[in-house]
Design brief:
The complex is a heterotrimer of chains A (310), B (419) and C (412). Chain A has a domain of 211 residues. Helices cover 71% and strands 3% of the residues of chain A. In chain A, a hairpin with a 2-residue loop joins strand 1 and strand 2. In chain A, helix 1 packs across helix 9, helix 2 packs across helix 8 and helix 9 crosses helix 10. Chain B contains 17 helices and 2 strands. The radius of gyration of chain B is 24 Å and the shape is globular. Chain B folds into 2 domains: 280 residues, ABC transporter involved in vitamin B12 uptake, BtuC; 78 residues. The chains are: A mainly alpha (310), B mainly alpha (419), C alpha/beta (412). Chains in contact: A-B, A-C, B-C. At the A-C interface, helix 1, strand 2, helix 9, helix 10 and helix 12 of A face helix 2, strand 7, helix 7, helix 8 and helix 9 of C.
């Protein structure tokens, strides 16, 4: 029971954080067909900007200002970088963002140094909310839960219930038609890219002090975000949500399983002291998402809820 | 019908053309490889050359996927790593020297790497090659992460963090080479680099090589003609893995060690960058990319801590403005010269060169000053006796003015050329 | 009066110039990451070596020769390290300094052995200041390799000695990264605890993939459920920081005994959460009482020169001071002479006596268990937190000592 409750709670929060990161990526992909390799770098940028803003002012200002700044950076990147490369096809776009990730990493190191910065949880939220089975539960985690849920609802509302959302959805499938109707499609693209990056920035603001803000955080988060987006189905927000939750829960619950491969496949003659037999499910947990990625792409390349093949 | 055949026959290059375009470059390449030792390069230069040879073969094998078959892989280092690991194990069996292994010369290691790489390609390629495009890229990413993680988990195969080392001086000598000193290893690397270049080039001339390009451009039509694109991709993938494994075998003899990092995303990303910067649309592009990037990777760090930033800038610059890479510049220039059009373009070329030089001045100033500001501990950037601190107005002038001027000049040159 | 001073100054300057012209430089190649994310561990070590060399040079150098430390960026890749090693040797370096990553160290030991065997008369020595895999001074020991840091099992001796003296610790949890180092740490902890305190129960022995875990909360939950009184981990980098951070978030109040708690930025990332939770074992206890004023002056000088980092790589100073002493003792700067003179050499060091054991080239020195506390004389990471020596945290060189299986092959 104890294990189950904790696996659920932690899995959901980790999943929500993953979703915040991947929602921006999947939004950008669904609009522009660009798989943004630098997405996790924008996440890192958000955390660092929040740290700097928080030093001067307060966390609450950083919470709003940092994502906006990251979004602006994203718009500049789209306008002067991606748009140029667009004509050369998707591989060139992907490679552009791949190189961009290198650049952002280096620039962050110039401005904030090579080691972790002291980015704290705001004092207002720095207290244990309740105690569960002997472990305190920090209030900040519940705060993450609320921010993520708020973002989810806001995004859904924006896309499905507003006029801007309608235009975006239309531009997704019929960019030329939308252009003919007098909408500025390049502007829409630029804004969507900016919003996508801002979402990553927001994840950085609230994830940076939950984890650690250092120059390695982008590389750490990068691959897993791709897994979420691809498993969920490229371009599908619902899919990204489901996949993020699935991966969050899968990873946290696998950690609590102590069984080794020998325990499971012992009937096949796998000895408990062989190199393969010694591996426990728990020690494999962080690799499970990648296994899932390969399996999903082989069996169902659309992803869980994707509408088209990636 | 007869007309058509006649036209096709007319399109075929003559023997002389074939010789000039295909055989002469290979002979030239061999001559270069033979001549290099005459210049008496230092040991570190030879070590660098050996690594260049390895990277050339690796980049060519990567371009079989990216350039020829249009398959973007983020995990190509897996095949070089597995091939290399196998070669290292073989070297250790040779050192034990019992039975069959006692008779195997170390010189043949790349052949073992080739086999292991092909096997790895055949096993991993089976699930991954069913898709092309983004799913292929993502599967390669996932597989690379899994294999790299396994590399740290299975110590008996991969030697854990410390990797597995071997001695290249065991086994029977071949061609009088003990392979002890690096200049003897040079001949080993030169031989196998030539084989690698020859092999990958020959591959482009085979029906399979041609089909892989067709599959890249239009898989549906390939299917209509009666070939299975999936199968074409799979076969190409196996060959690419094999040549990568061969590069791994070369690396095993040169460095005498393989560690699990060699399977990770970092070398995979590096070879992607090298190949793309060289130019994926030309056969020789990856060779140029491998030479330039190996040199920069090992030596740029002697001059500046910001070398990663320069590499990143260069890569992004190539992606944005030079999709044909270094080879594109080389061949473009050569074509213009051969066509005798230098008279028309020299002005815009000069303008562009000057503009690029100005941009480079600004970029270098900004980067160097920024790094010193960040972690130079009071050190100041002093090129040509100038004292460029952050409080020096000249720094800011050098950081901004040439940049603006250079961009204007390059844009003007581009406009002039498009007219 | 003024003119006499000037004349004396001029004479002194010219004298210096003359000695400087006669003195040769001893090139030492520092091969470690100096760019990229890992530079945060390479750079402070590089600076430490440079500062150590400056001090030795200011005191007349080594047999009158000056040390020059040259940095070679190896990007933490073993293969790239071999290219840089060749470059270093070609540029005349006969001493190699490296420490970050046992994979690189293994490659360098192997390459140095082969180089010295294939190029007699051009031998190089390898001073390893941080690669702690025990094998390097056991079955894989080499005459050309000297280790100036306590290896895994020795550091674990420090940790287990401290735990053995604490009667309130009954249950210990082991967690580590799933590769050789993590496994070695877990194995050493198990065997040593079984020998020193058989009543202690190992309530968990967990391995997780290297640098792949983002959220350690589930692991911490497991640790809490197991009722552990202390945790031993060999984790480094983010794996260490995130683990301790997750523990602090859960309000857990038990010691996390680490090898690398002192790495740059860890205390900054953890803040108050590290206080009395994060423990480390190392050869350095900057805030200890009874440290000589010279040593404290060195710590202050380092901080003033390199404000981004803190005095951490004390071993760099030990290594170069021992080199200086050995070369002076041998009366030669030749690597073979220095190597023989280093064997069995003892020097008085800022934090105790350091001896280079002859049989395996493993340094023997006291170790200290420290934890994070407020209001320390020498805080770290530009916070107000610093490392405080814990009660019973001084481990003598004899207590930390481990036997060696090394069969040293010495040249004639």
């Amino acid at each position: 029971m104890e294990t189950l409750v904790f696996a659920l709670l932690n899995g959901v929060i980790y999943g929500l954080l993953l979703f915040m990161l991947s929602s921006g990526l999947t939004l950008i992909f669904s609009m522009m067909g660009v798989l943004n390799f630098a997405h996790a770098s924008f996440y890192m940028l958000g955390a660092y900007l929040a740290f700097t803003i928080m030093e001067g002012t307060s966390f609450w200002i950083a919470l709003f200002l940092a994502p906006v700044l990251v979004g602006l950076v994203g718009m500049v990147v789209e306008r002067y970088g991606l748009r140029r490369v667009h004509a050369q096809g998707h591989v060139a776009e992907l490679l552009f963002t791949f190189g961009l990730a290198y650049l952002i990493d280096e620039v962050v190191k110039i401005f904030w140094g090579r080691t972790a910065v002291n980015y704290r949880v705001p004092e207002l939220l720095d207290f244990p909310l309740f105690t569960l089975y002997g472990a305190q539960y920090p209030a900040y985690r519940i705060f993450i839960l609320f921010v993520a849920a708020f973002m989810l609802v806001a995004l859904w509302y924006l896309l499905k219930k507003t006029r801007a959302g309608l235009i975006i959805q239309a531009a997704l499938t019929h960019p030329h038609m939308v252009g003919s109707l007098g909408h500025n499609v390049p502007l829409i693209f630029m804004s969507v890219f900016g919003v996508g990056c801002a979402l990553a920035g927001l994840a950085g603001v609230i994830g940076g002090n939950y984890f650690v803000t250092d120059p390695a955080m982008a590389v750490q988060m990068g691959p897993i975000v791709f897994v979420v987006v691809v498993v969920g189905g490229l371009g599908s927000l619902e899919g990204a949500f489901v996949a993020a939750m699935l991966i969050g829960l899968l990873q946290t619950s696998a950690i609590s399983i102590n069984a080794s491969l020998a325990d499971i496949f012992g009937f096949l003659g796998l000895g408990p002291h062989t190199e393969v037999g010694e591996i426990t499910i728990a020690s494999m947990a962080p690799m499970l998402p990648f296994l899932l990625l390969v399996l999903i792409l082989m069996i169902r390349p659309r992803g869980l809820m994707g509408e088209r093949e990636v | 019908m007869t007309d058509m055949t006649a036209t096709y026959a007319a399109l075929e290059p003559t023997r002389a053309e074939k010789f000039r375009q295909r055989t002469v470059p290979l002979i030239l390449f061999a001559v270069v490889l033979l001549v290099i030792p005459l210049f008496n390069p230092s040991r570190s230069m030879v070590t660098l050359l050996n690594h260049m040879g390895i990277t050339i073969v690796f980049a060519l094998s990567y371009n079989m996927l990216l350039g020829r078959a249009g398959l973007l892989s983020f995990g190509h280092a897996v095949y070089m790593g597995l091939g290399g690991y196998f070669a290292v194990h073989v070297m250790n069996w040779v050192a034990e020297g019992s039975g069959f292994w006692g008779a195997v010369p170390i010189f043949s290691m790349p052949a073992f790497g080739f086999g292991a790489g092909a096997l790895a390609g055949a096993i991993i390629g089976w699930p991954s090659c069913r898709r092309s495009g983004t799913p292929f890229a993502m599967i390669s990413l996932g597989v690379a992460e899994l294999v790299a993680a396994a590399g740290f988990m299975f110590d008996s195969l991969f030697g854990g963090e410390m990797g597995i080392s071997a001695d290249r001086m065991g086994g029977p000598e071949f061609a009088g080479l003990s392979l002890g000193p690096v200049d003897e290893v040079y001949w080993f690397i030169a031989f196998w680099t030539f084989i690698g270049v020859l092999g990958t080039y020959a591959f482009t001339r085979t029906p399979l090589g041609k089909l892989s390009e067709a599959t890249r451009d239009n898989p549906e039509r390939v299917e209509f003609v009666g070939y299975n694109p999936q199968r074409v991709r799979y076969l190409v993938f196996i060959f690419a893995g094999a040549f990568a494994g061969m590069a791994g075998g070369m690396s095993a003899v040169q460095d005498e060690i393989f560690t699990p990092e060699s399977l990770s995303l970092i070398p995979s990303g590096a070879i992607l960058i090298a190949t793309y910067v060289g130019g994926i649309r030309y056969f020789t592009g990856p060779i140029m990319g491998a030479i330039v990037m190996t040199y920069m990777g090992s030596n740029l760090s002697d001059y500046t801590v910001g070398w990663l930033l320069y590499l990143g800038l260069m890569f992004v610059g190539v992606v944005m403005f030079l999709p044909n890479g270094i080879a594109g510049i080389v061949y473009g220039t050569a074509d213009t010269l051969r066509a005798g059009r230098l008279g028309e373009v020299w002005q815009s070329w000069l303008l562009r060169l000057a503009g690029l030089a100005l941009i480079a001045t600004s970029v270098i100033t900004i980067v160097e000053v920024a790094f010193r500001w960040s972690e130079g501990y009071g050190e100041v950037f002093e090129p040509f006796g100038l004292h460029l601190g952050t409080d020096n107005p000249l720094t800011w002038a050098l950081g901004v003015l040439p940049l603006v001027l250079g961009v204007v000049m390059v844009m003007k040159a581009a406009k002039g050329e498009s007219k | 009066m003024k003119s006499t001073v000037k004349a004396a100054l001029a004479a002194a300057v010219s004298l210096c110039a003359v000695t400087a012209a006669q003195a040769e430089t001893i090139k030492m190649a520092f091969i470690d990451p100096l760019s990229g994310a890992m530079a945060s561990s390479g750079e402070p070590a590089y600076q430490s070596f440079i500062l150590a060399a400056e001090h030795i040079n200011a005191n007349g150098g080594v047999n009158g020769d000056m040390i020059e430390v040259v940095g070679y960026d190896n990007k933490v890749s073993p293969k790239e390290s071999l290219v840089q090693l060749q470059k270093a040797i070609d540029s005349g370096a006969r001493y190699i300094l490296q420490g970050n990553g046992s994979s690189v160290a293994a490659a360098i030991i192997d390459a140095v052995n082969k180089h010295n065997q294939r190029n007699p008369g051009e031998e190089v020595l390898f001073f390893n200041y941080a690669a702690v895999t025990p094998e390097f001074t056991n079955e894989a020991c080499s005459f050309w390799h000297f280790r100036f840091d306590a290896h895994t099992d020795m550091k674990m001796n420090g940790i287990t000695d401290w735990i053995a003296a604490r009667d309130d610790i009954k249950k210990v949890y082991l967690i580590g990264q799933d590769y050789v180092h993590g496994e070695a740490v877990a194995h050493a902890a198990e065997t040593q605890l079984a020998a020193k305190r058989p009543d202690i129960e190992i309530v968990g022995n967990e391995l997780h993939p290297l640098a792949k875990v983002k959220d350690f909360t589930p692991y911490v939950q497991k640790i809490i459920s197991s009722g552990a009184d202390a945790v031993i981990t060999g984790n480094w980098g983010q794996d260490m920081t995130l683990l301790v951070k997750a523990s602090a978030d859960a309000g857990q109040q038990i010691p996390y005994l680490t090898f690398y708690g002192g790495s740059n930025g860890a205390v900054a990332a953890l803040g108050d959460g590290a206080v009395d939770t994060l423990y480390q074992v190392s050869e350095l206890a900057a805030n200890m009482e009874g440290v000589s004023p010279e040593q404290n002056a060195l710590v202050e000088e380092y901080k003033a020169r390199f404000p981004d980092y803190d005095y951490y790589y004390h071993r760099a100073f030990v290594a170069l001071n021992m080199f200086d002493a050995a070369a002076e003792k041998a009366g030669s700067n030749d690597p073979i002479d220095v190597a023989y003179a280093l064997e069995g050499l003892s020097i008085e060091d800022g934090y105790g006596t350091a001896t280079m054991r002859a049989e395996d080239h493993q340094i023997q020195q006291p170790l200290y268990i420290t934890t994070v506390a407020h209001d320390m004389t020498y805080p770290v990471d530009n916070t107000d937190l610093g490392w405080r020596l814990v009660e019973g945290g001084t481990i003598s060189a004899e207590a930390a000592m481990e036997p060696s299986t090394c069969e040293m092959q010495r040249p004639e």
